[in-house]
Task: inverse folding
């Protein structure tokens, strides 16, 4: 899947929950009249549904081990939307209450999975928050347009939310997959530090919405759908602010300022001389809260390994929900002791404290970019098509590949297989170069079972031709030196490839790689068998000089012998796997010289 459809699917998933839940909250009083219960009871049901969503996250983490998270989210979100629609279509208290409660529980994956999916892509957390804000705006406009018929409004919102959640299933491959990658330094510390900050971002939303809507109703006597209409108009500039300010969400250093902006919003509302300026306070509060959440996700979730990413996204999402409920309740409680404006202004104090707590979220320690960075690489045709594969490795590192797609991935990196995506090597994009250019420029070389020396030419002559193409000043001397590295090849320069054994062909293919002097060496199918000792020794020496070595090997023992890190390459994912260091007693013997016998 290309980036645009995948991001559209992620945006749909992020928007579905706020669309359905926001419609219920904004139409609480009107729905109470239809169902024949007080509007406060509808609010209580909606808040209980949110608590059930938080409680259901534990089950989501269990199910995510057996079901792909994006499919689980699509199914749960679609059923939750249908539950909301059912509550609007059948205005009987048992059906209404059951629909809201079931929707809350089924919507649990929406609290975590869309944010976890977006965390890995730069800029995606801000776009995800913009999508959630768009869903809230849609809820406000539906509530405004259908305020006289709240049941129909709930049916429309529920069905739209179900369709959006189902569309999230199209984000295949975007959901986090299990990995053995360790957490970056400081990452787990930042998760703990982020919890109270997430709680306070939720507080900003809950307190501002509750207090602002109440002020619109009782200070300026705006009744019915009028307060929600002001909110609906305010959400449009809030969405624009999030889109324009998305770069502010790329650094943890912006968090204190965003929280202070969110704290200023209740003060703006409390002092507003008219409903228009109060609506501007809605825009400031919601935009600041969304950007702060995106900044937290960028700083806290992105450095985590996939095995902890979903749990951290769920935990922080639950903290934001609890914070919103606390702000919602506190704004209502303060009105019992203070005037309307004063009560709303007092809700600005906790976010100011949050700005101080945000200083504890420093983000992961910066590390240099990977030497090889493969992003969203897809090979649509071939024995094992790949979809959105990704890996990273450092210069001088040896990484092993296993699985059915390992050879396909190496061929794509070398330029021998048509592919889509990005291949960055030392900051340079290889996708603009063909296979010959990649090799001639010394960027990468694929060493496989069959050498490049033509069958009809002597081995030394063919190697000399390759050395000349690589720019060696003395091609004949370079060819002889490459053959002399391997004792099994000495004296075979006058022979032909057709007379060689398989092991000798493997070594000859590696001799060609030595003449290329690549920055990235791709080794496919020659790291095992009788020539393994010689191949391993040469690869170790090349890695010591800074060459990145990527090896496709067929079995786990070979991975242990060659690398400390590996990837399993399957049709729809590339999963990093832990490679424990083997005991010296179990390590294959490697000859002192790079030659070892290859007979």
Result:
């Amino acid at each position: 899947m290309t980036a645009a459809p995948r991001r559209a699917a992620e945006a749909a998933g992020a928007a579905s929950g706020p669309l359905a839940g926001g419609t219920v909250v904004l139409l609480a009083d009107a729905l109470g009249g239809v169902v024949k219960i007080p509007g406060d009871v509808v609010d209580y049901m909606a808040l209980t549904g949110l608590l059930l969503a938080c409680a259901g996250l534990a089950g989501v983490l269990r199910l995510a081990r057996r079901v792909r998270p994006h499919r689980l989210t699509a199914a749960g979100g679609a059923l939750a939307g249908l539950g909301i629609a059912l509550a609007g279509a059948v205005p009987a208290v048992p059906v209404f209450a059951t629909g809201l409660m079931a929707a809350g529980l089924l919507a649990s994956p929406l609290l975590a999975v869309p944010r976890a999916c977006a965390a890995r892509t730069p800029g995606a957390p801000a776009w995800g928050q913009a999508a959630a804000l768009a869903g809230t705006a849609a809820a406000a406009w539906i509530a405004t347009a259908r305020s006289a018929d709240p049941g129909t409004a709930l049916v429309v919102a529920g069905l739209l939310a179900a369709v959006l959640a189902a569309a999230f299933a199209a984000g295949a491959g975007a959901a986090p997959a299990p990995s053995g990658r360790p957490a970056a330094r400081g990452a787990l510390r930042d998760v703990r530090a982020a919890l109270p900050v997430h709680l306070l971002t939720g507080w900003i939303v809950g307190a501002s919405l509750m207090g602002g809507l109440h002020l619109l109703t009782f200070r300026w006597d705006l009744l019915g759908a009028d307060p929600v209409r002001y909110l609906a108009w305010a959400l449009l500039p809030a969405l624009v602010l999030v889109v324009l300010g998305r770069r502010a969400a790329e650094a943890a250093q912006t968090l204190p300022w965003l929280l202070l902006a969110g704290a200023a919003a209740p003060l703006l509302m409390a002092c507003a001389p008219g409903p228009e300026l109060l609506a501007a306070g809605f825009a400031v509060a919601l935009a600041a809260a969304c950007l702060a959440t995106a900044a937290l996700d960028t700083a806290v979730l992105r450095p985590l390994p996939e095995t902890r990413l979903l749990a951290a996204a769920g935990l922080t999402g639950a903290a934001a929900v609890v914070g919103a409920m606390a702000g919602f309740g506190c704004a209502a409680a303060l009105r019992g002791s203070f005037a309307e404006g004063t009560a709303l202004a007092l809700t600005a104090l906790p976010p100011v404290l949050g700005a101080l707590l945000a200083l504890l979220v420093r983000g992961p320690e910066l590390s240099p970019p990977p030497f090889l960075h493969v992003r969203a690489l897809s090979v649509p045709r071939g024995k094992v098509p790949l979809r959105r594969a990704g890996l990273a490795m450092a210069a001088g590192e040896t990484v092993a590949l296993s699985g059915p797609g390992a050879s396909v991935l190496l061929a794509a990196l070398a330029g021998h297989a048509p592919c889509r995506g990005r291949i960055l090597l030392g900051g340079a994009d290889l996708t603009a170069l063909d296979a010959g250019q990649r090799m001639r420029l010394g960027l990468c070389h694929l060493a496989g079972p069959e050498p490049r020396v033509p069958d009809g030419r002597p081995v030394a002559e063919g190697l000399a031709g390759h050395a000349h193409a690589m720019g060696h000043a003395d091609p004949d001397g370079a060819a002889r030196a490459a053959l002399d590295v391997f004792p099994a090849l000495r004296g075979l320069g006058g022979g032909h490839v057709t007379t060689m054994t398989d092991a000798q062909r493997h070594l000859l293919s590696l001799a060609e790689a030595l003449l290329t002097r690549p920055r990235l060496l791709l080794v496919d199918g020659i790291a095992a068998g009788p020539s393994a000792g010689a191949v391993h020794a040469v690869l170790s020496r090349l890695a010591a000089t800074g060459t990145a070595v990527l090896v496709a090997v067929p079995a786990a023992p070979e991975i242990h012998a060659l690398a400390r890190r590996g990837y399993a390459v399957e049709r729809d994912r590339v999963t990093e796997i832990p490679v424990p260091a083997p005991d010296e007693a179990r390590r294959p013997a490697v000859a002192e010289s790079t030659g070892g016998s290859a007979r």
Notes: The longest strand covers residues 372-379. The two ends are 47 Å apart (CA to CA).
